[in-house]
Amino acid sequence: MAEDIKTKLGRYKTAPFDSRFPNQNQTRNCWQNYLDFHRCQRAMEAKGADATPCQWYFRVYKSLCPSSWVSD
Q1: Residue 47: inside a domain
Q2: Domain of 38, in residue numbers
Q3: 30, 32, 49, 55: least buried by Cβ within 10 Å?
Q4: Which residues 6+ apart lie within 8 Å of 70 measured at CB?
Q5: 16-22: long-range contacts at Cβ-Cβ below 8 A with a sequence spacing of 24 or more?
Q6: pLDDT single digits (tens) 5-48
Q7: What are the start-end ranges of the H helices in the chain?
Q8: Please, are residues 54 and 44 in contact by the beta-carbon 8 Å criterion?
Q9: Residue 65 within any structural domain of the chain
């Protein structure tokens, strides 16, 4: 169990600084990354391309948004 937590902590990455949202309240940053993720996915699927690059937005909004807002 302790090893599992250590590996999760080792792989955990927080959201990088975004100069569009310099304030302490990150709610709008959460929302913008949520929108960017879904827009990216929709655009990649329309092109028939791999949507793997969109996972960056998913990790950022999952890191920023309260867990009660995010469902897997």
Answers
A1: yes
A2: 25-71
A3: 49
A4: 61, 62
A5: 16/60
A6: 677 666 767 788 888 888 888 999 999 999 999 999 999 999 99
A7: 2-11, 27-47, 55-64
A8: yes
A9: yes
Q: What is the CATH number of the domain that holds 49?
A: 1.10.10.140
**Closest of 2, 8, 11, 66 to residue 34, by C-alpha:** 66
Is there a contact between 54 and 40 (Cβ–Cβ < 8 Å)? yes
Residue 20 within any structural domain of the chain? no
21 by Cβ neighbours in 10 Å (0-12 / 13-18 / 19+) ranks as: middle
Q: How far is CA 60 from CA 18, 46, 63, in A?
A: 11, 23, 5
CB atoms within 10 A of CB 37: 20
Q: Based on the structure, what is the number of domains in the chain?
A: 1
Asked if residue 56 belongs to a domain, the reply is yes
